[in-house]
C-alpha cells in the first residue's frame, strides 16, 4: 500500500510540475507580447490599428458581396438555366437535387437551412430533379437526395443519399458540415480526421465518393423507404 501511495505522490508531483511549466510558458509569451506593445511607438500602433480596420472593412465588403449573390439562405432555384448562372457567380456552391415525395430530401432540407445561415461563404441551393432532366443526366444523378458540391463552376464531389453521413436518418447537422468540409466547399473549423459520428462505432469513419462509371438506369433511385 505504501508503494502505491508513493507512486500516487510522485505522479501528482509530476503533474503539478507540468502545470507549473505550462503556466510559465504562457506567462512568458504574454509578457513578450506586452513588451512588444510597450515598445511600439505611436506611428507603429496607428499602422497596426489601420491594418486591422482595413481587414475588418474588407471582411464586411466580402460579406455584403456574398449576401447580394444570395448567400446566407437556402433557396430553391426554378430551372436548370438558373443553376448555371448561380454556380458561375459564386466560388463555392452546394446544390441539393431533390424530389417532393422523397422523405429523406426533407431531412436534408432541415440541415441545409441551418448550414446556409452559418456558412455565408457558400451558396446553398435546391433544384427539383424532375424539372432538371438534362442536368441530372449530365451529372449522372440517380439517387435522391444528392448534393452536388461545386467549386469554381465545376462539380468536384457528391454526397449521395446518407451513406457518407453515418448511414442513418438521424445524422446531425455537424456530420453534414464535416462532410462538406471534407470537400473543401465550406470553411470548416473542426478536425476533418475526427468525424462527428466516430463515437458511434457501427457507422465507421470512411466515406465514399460517387463513382460516375458505375451508375446505370434511367429513373431515379430513392434513398427513402417510403416511396
Give your account of this protein's structure.
The protein has 227 residues and is of the alpha/beta class. It has a domain of 111 residues: Glutaredoxin (3-Layer(aba) Sandwich). It is 47% helix and 15% strand. The strands form 2 sheets. It has a 5-stranded mixed beta sheet. A hairpin with a 2-residue loop joins strand 5 and strand 6. The longest helix has 38 residues. Forms ternary complexes with the chaperonin TCP1 complex, spanning the cylindrical chaperonin cavity and contacting at least 2 subunits.
Q: Helix count?
A: 6
Strand order of the largest sheet: 1-3-2-5-6
Q: Summarize the helix and strand pattern as letters.
A: HHEHEHEHEEEHE
What's the total count of β strands?
A: 7
**What fraction strand?**
5-15%
Give the C-alpha Rg.
25 Å
Helix content: 40-55%
CATH topology of the domain at 73-183: Glutaredoxin
Shape descriptor: flat
Query: Structural class of the helices, strands and pairings?
Result: alpha/beta
Instruction: Give the distance, in angstroms, between the N- and C-terminal Cα atoms.
Output: 67 Å
Largest sheet: 5 strands, mixed
Mean pLDDT: 86
- Enumerate the spans where pLDDT stays under 50 for 5 or more consecutive residues: 202-218
**Which homologous superfamily in CATH is the superfamily of the domain at 73-183?**
Glutaredoxin
CATH architecture of the domain at 73-183: 3-Layer(aba) Sandwich
User: What CATH first level of the domain at 73-183 would be assigned?
Assistant: Alpha Beta
Amino acid at each position: 500500500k505504501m508503494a502505491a501511495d508513493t507512486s500516487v505522490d510522485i505522479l501528482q508531483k509530476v503533474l503539478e510540475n507540468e502545470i507549473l511549466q505550462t503556466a510559465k510558458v504562457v506567462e512568458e509569451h504574454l509578457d513578450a507580447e506586452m513588451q512588444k506593445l510597450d515598445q511600439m511607438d505611436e506611428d507603429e500602433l496607428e499602422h497596426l490599428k489601420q491594418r486591422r480596420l482595413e481587414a475588418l472593412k474588407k471582411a464586411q465588403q466580402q460579406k455584403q458581396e456574398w449576401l447580394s449573390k444570395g448567400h446566407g439562405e437556402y433557396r430553391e432555384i426554378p430551372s436548370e438555366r438558373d443553376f448555371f448562372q448561380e454556380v458561375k457567380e459564386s466560388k463555392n456552391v452546394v446544390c441539393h437535387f431533390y424530389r417532393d415525395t422523397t422523405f429523406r430530401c426533407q431531412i436534408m432540407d432541415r440541415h441545409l437551412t441551418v448550414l446556409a445561415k452559418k456558412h455565408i461563404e457558400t451558396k446553398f441551393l435546391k433544384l427539383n430533379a424532375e424539372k432538371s432532366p438534362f442536368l441530372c443526366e449530365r451529372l449522372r444523378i440517380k439517387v435522391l437526395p444528392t448534393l452536388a458540391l461545386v467549386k469554381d463552376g465545376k462539380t468536384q464531389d457528391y454526397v449521395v443519399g446518407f451513406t457518407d453521413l453515418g448511414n442513418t436518418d438521424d445524422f446531425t447537422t455537424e456530420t453534414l458540415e464535416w462532410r462538406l468540409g471534407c470537400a473543401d466547399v465550406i470553411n470548416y473549423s473542426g478536425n476533418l480526421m475526427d468525424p462527428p459520428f466516430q463515437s458511434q462505432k457501427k457507422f465507421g469513419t470512411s466515406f465514399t465518393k460517387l463513382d460516375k462509371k458505375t451508375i446505370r438506369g434511367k429513373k431515379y433511385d430513392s434513398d427513402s423507404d417510403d416511396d
